[in-house]
């Protein structure tokens, strides 16, 4: 398999997110994709031997904006820590002509929720934000946690990716 170039686009609307969050969250997104290699790109529609680049967008927002997104897309009038959105139109277009960047989708994180949950669970905020980024990217790659076996597999992939970041693997640097 040809190693894929994973691009990440990070933007934020909340002043609470810091510039030094971006490189770590980029590494988390990359770690999630590589934790699933070589299956990741195959599951979302690209063949393992294709050398196209991939893109994941990370959007960092506040609790109010996350609540609005959660209500709009899931019908839930509450905030949440992370949401993932597949870019189905971009993926369909890419699958038709196999050119350009394959956009996996968007991962959205809410700062206040990340901070609150990190404190509740006894984690450092930046490590917890990485874990949630990985979680969101795994959803883009087709993982879910509704069934027990799926949840175990997803947790295993998350743990593998977090450990890669902690080891400072060159693969995710």
Question: Could you characterize the architecture of this molecule?
Answer:
- The protein has seven helices and four strands.
- The chain has 173 residues and is of the alpha/beta class.
- The chain has a single domain, classed as Collagenase (Catalytic Domain) (3-Layer(aba) Sandwich), CATH 3.40.390.
- A four-stranded mixed sheet has the order 1-2-4-3, sandwiched between helices.
- Helix 6 crosses helix 7.
- The model has no long low-confidence stretch (mean pLDDT 80).
- CATH superfamily grouping: Metalloproteases ("zincins"), catalytic domain
Secondary structure tally: strands: 4
Low-confidence stretches: none
- Indicate the overall shape: globular
Our Rg estimate from Cα atoms comes to 16 Å
The DSSP helix count reads: 7
- Arrangement of strands in the largest sheet: 1-2-4-3
- Beta content: 15-25%
H/E element string? EHHEHEHEHHH
How many angstroms does the end-to-end distance come to? 20 Å
**Main beta sheet: strand number and arrangement?**
4 strands, mixed
Reading off the top of the CATH hierarchy, the class is best stated as Alpha Beta
Say what the CATH topology is: Collagenase (Catalytic Domain)
- Structural class, by secondary structure, is alpha/beta
Please tell me the overall pLDDT.
80
The tally of domains stands at 1
Ordered list of secondary-structure elements with their pairings:
Elements: E1 6-12, H1 21-35, H2 39-43, E2 54-61, H3 63-74, E3 82-86, H4 88-97, E4 102-110, H5 111-121, H6 125-140, H7 148-167
Parallel strand pairs: 1-2, 2-4
Antiparallel strand pairs: 3-4
Helix pairs in contact: 1-6, 1-7, 5-6, 6-7
